[in-house]
Prior knowledge:
By secondary structure, the chain is an alpha+beta fold. The protein has helices spanning 2-9, 32-48, 53-72, 80-106, 111-119, 126-135, 185-190, 211-220, 222-241; strands spanning 12-19, 24-31, 137-141, 146-148, 156-162, 165-169, 172-177, 182-183, 197-200, 204-210.
Amino acid sequence: xxxxxxxxxxxxxxxxxxxxSGEITTMLTLTMLDVFGHLSFALIAVSYAVKDMLVLRAIxxxxxxxxxFYNYLLPMGPLWIPIIWxxxxxVINGSRIIGLYSEQRSVSFSEDEKELYETTFREFSxxxxxxxxxxxxxKEIPQNxxxxxxxxxxxxxxxxxxxxxxxxxDGKEIARARDGAMIGEMSFLQGGNATATVQASQPCRxxxxxxxxxxxxxxxxxxxxxxxxxxFSMDLTKKLLGQxxxxxxxx
Length: 251
């Protein structure tokens, strides 16, 4: 049976290629088996561009299956070393797929957390976002309360879930921020005290992360650290686009 499959796959497709204005013609010979070999490596290349770990590992398993097929049906006979290693990689990826799928099935968000994930934290996997929210506290902020005071230490990173705040520097209003704005991000990233005063102009609801606990979490999880930096970058972009003054508003 495998012999008949091997014979079928060795059917050659010859493609003429002209070189130097038609003076020389060469033939590119490609068998069906060659196509499977190229497809296996192409899937590996695609997996490198995928961010979702579950999808990445699924593509790797598909690449491995095609690679096994290719290495077993080669005209000179099976290449057992790549077959053995590809099989091992498939087992590892398969076990991680089961683990990741089980983790994602166990994740459940409240309506507010789901909204926050879909609007701000899409770069996080559901499991990573769950870890992030375990550290967080939700807090209602009355109108006129201060979320940060210029020159004072900020002990936490805050995200404005809904409401509006006034941002003042040297006693003058320089901007207003609304839903999704980060408060204390520069202090979190670079250390130091608050560079502006932030006051609630209306009742607000915030998500609050203790600064040191969040730093430790991101240090233990490099992919979460990268995702969080993306969140900060998007926050800065929104602040820049929302201001007439070209100077960015950091706190």
